[in-house]
TrEMBL record:
One Pfam assignment: HTH_1
Domain of life: Bacteria
Residues spanning the membrane: none
Stated name of the protein: LysR family transcriptional regulator
Keyword Transcription regulation belongs to the record: yes
One Gene Ontology term of the molecular function aspect: DNA-binding transcription factor activity
Length: 302
């Protein structure tokens, strides 16, 4: 069988975009031309690859099974066939997808986007919300970089720990706990909101309080730190958040922070990416700009 690498490239784009029109735009092709290519792919694979559900298209089980492998094959082919050359940011045309906690997005966003606009006008950034459950999107090539607090388990995922933050209690300046000695008893007597992407109403702080024979009232959980901090500002609740990465939001909302009255492990900040990008110059540039955006973090946690 004659192997056409263009079909693999088209298949990769189709499985990334889940849309003929989106993949065509990405490949600078017309939608009818890519639709014909999809027809060829279907005949060769014996699978529909993408099927229409209402107004959207969804991948078939076979397409989901091969998506990561197809992406890897296309990347390896490009590495083999493209000549070795330096990175030209002025002509770089690429979309990077970055997934992370909302506080991280807020912290890195201004600096990162300023660098992109100034240095790489052909680059676009997708800032994606933290997933509600663990995913393999780095492995499958749907996300270029994840920023979180845990080191990856998969051996093919590279990572770098930027630094460590500490949890603090955030509260309004007029809150009763804003002044005086914040003891564990006073902390536990306050009403709290916690950050949980899964909607949990307990976290490690409750275990620590239990060890001190204390119990707090958690009024609510919020899926993001931004939402929790806003509700703390509006409702007079207390919320524990990483101090430095949440600093921009804390400043805008006018919230005060207090050290927690008990010891908790520091919160790491970890960059993770698939090892296929270890030597990718454009990806290395992106990682560098994110490190620049988090330079304050390295300083305060050194």
């Amino acid at each position: 069988m004659h192997l056409d690498l263009n079909l693999l490239t088209a298949l990769d784009a189709l499985l990334e975009e889940n849309s003929v029109a989106g993949a065509a735009e990405r490949l600078n092709l017309s939608a009818p031309a890519l639709s014909r290519t999809l027809g060829r792919i279907r005949r060769i694979t014996g699978d529909q690859i993408l099927v229409r559900t209402g107004r959207t298209m969804v991948p078939t089980p076979h397409a989901l099974a091969i998506r990561g492998e197809v992406h890897d094959l296309v990347q390896r082919a490009r590495e083999v066939l493209e000549p070795e050359r330096g990175l030209d940011l002025a002509t770089l045309n690429r979309v990077f997808s970055i997934r992370g906690h909302d506080a991280v997005t807020t912290a890195i966003g201004p600096s990162l986007l300023a660098a992109v606009r100034e240095q790489a006008p052909g680059v676009s950034i997708r800032l994606l919300a933290e997933a509600s459950s663990d995913t393999n999107e780095l492995r499958h090539g749907r996300v270029d970089l994840e920023i979180g607090s845990t080191e990856p388990d998969l051996p093919e995922i590279s990572h770098a720990t930027i630094g460590h933050d500490r949890l603090v209690a955030a509260l309004r300046p007029d809150h009763p706990c804003a002044d005086g000695d914040l003891t564990a008893e006073r902390f536990a007597q306050a009403d709290h909101i916690i950050v949980s992407r899964r909607g949990r109403l307990k976290d490690p702080i409750d275990e620590t309080l239990q060890g001190l024979r204390l119990r707090r009232r958690v009024v609510a959980s919020a899926p993001t730190s931004t939402a929790a901090l806003y509700l703390a500002a509006e409702s007079g609740l207390v919320v524990a958040v990483p101090e430095h990465v949440c600093e921009p939001t804390l400043r805008v909302l006018g919230l005060r922070t207090r050290p927690l009255p008990f010891d908790l492990p520091p919160v790491p900040l970890v960059l993770a990416w698939h090892q296929r990008y270890d030597n990718d110059k454009a990806h290395a540039w992106l990682r560098g700009r994110i490190r620049d955006a988090l330079a304050f973090y390295e300083q305060v946690t050194a």
